[in-house]
Amino acid sequence: MSKTQSSLSFSDMALPSAVLEQLNAMGFETPTPIQQQSIPALLEGNDVLGEAQTGTGKTAAFGLPALAKIDPSLKQTQVLVVTPTRELAIQVAEALEGFSKKMRGVGVATVYGGAAFGPQVKALKQGTSIVVGTPGRLIDLLNKNVLQLDGLKVAVLDEADEMLNMGFIEDIETILKGVPETAQRALFSATMPNAIRKLAKTFLNKPLNIQIEAVAREKATIKQKAWKVQGMTKMTALTRLLEVTPYQRALIFVRTRQDTMDVAELLQRSGFKASPLSGDLNQAQREQTVSQLRSGHIEILVATDVVARGLDVPEITHVINYDLPSDTESYVHRIGRTGRAGRSGEAILFFRAKERHLLRHYERLTNAPVEFFEVPNANQLSQHRQQQLLEKLQASMQADSAHADSDKLKKLLGQWLESGELSAEDIALALLTEQHKQRPLFLKEDRPVREMRSERPGRNERGDKRKPRAERGGRAADIDFDTYKIQVGKEHGARPGDIVGAIANEASMDSKYIGQIQLFDNHALVQLPKGMPKDVMHVLKKARVRQQPMGLELSDEQVKRAPRPPRDRDARGPKRRQAGKGAARRFN
Ligand code: ADP
Ligand code: MG
Question: Which of 85, 103, 268, 338 is paired with 141 by a 20 to 30 Å CA distance?
Answer without folding.
Answer: 103
